[in-house]
Amino acid sequence: MLFLLFSVLCSVLIANLLMLFGRSGKLNMLPIFLGNYFIASLFSFEAWNQSQPSLSSFDLLFGILAGALFLANFWVYQASITYNGLSLSVGVMRVAMIIPVLLAVTIFGEKLKLTGLAGIALAVAAFALKADPKELHNFLWLLGLFAVSGLTDASLKVYKELGSGAESAFVWVIFSSAFVLTLIVILLGRIRFSYQSLLFGFALGLPNRLSTVFFLKGLDTVPASLAYPLVAVSVVVLSIGSDMVFWKKKARSKEVLLWALLLISLLLLNL
Length: 271
Hints:
- Helix content is 81%, strand content 0%.
- The chain is mainly alpha-helical.
- The protein has one domain.
- Helix 2 (29-47) crosses helix 9, helix 4 packs parallel to helix 7 (136-162) and helix 10 runs antiparallel to helix 11 (253-270).
- The longest helix has 28 residues, at 57-84.
- The radius of gyration is 18 Å and the shape is globular.
- The two termini are 18 Å apart.
């Protein structure tokens, strides 16, 4: 259980760091992402199990595509946190698992339980509650975050079904391609960055990688049926708390209802 707590804290730390970097107004996020993916690719290379099957051409090409999705997801996530706040963005990114769930049902023939249907319905209700024409710009960022996060998660499901099984090598391809793509965008855009931005990226990359490491270790002692909903809900609850304490978020009755819908939706989707 302690490892799951560490995983939750790392996830919440990532969101708060993105909020901090985004609010500074002086930092370009791409160099920070570059440092993040550099650290993530190093960790992934170290974890690469050389005894696994070699990468197929599908693994390589699909890994590059997944790397582009990971980069886009991080960028939209950070922007949404800046415009919509930390807690709501974290909640939306978590319920984006609806997309890989629907993919598994429609393409791979898996069955969807009534709890899953109820979770999807509540997530739709939460989006409907947030859909305010006066805040269309912010709402579009949430929709973009939902779509890109869902597609990113779905890419891992597709690899599980169609890939060669060399998972640690595939993860290394994802993070390495995200690093290279970020570097290409920086060079083409002639974006200047300081070593400070790169160091901020390193600081972001450590909890980004450790959150997964701690979660996998937690699964050794805690059943997955308990670990997934516990971590998902805990991350959102702590994000709401940090949003109110550190970023002085004032919760209106509508937002409290929105958080409640997202939390219940997460529980139902993960059961």
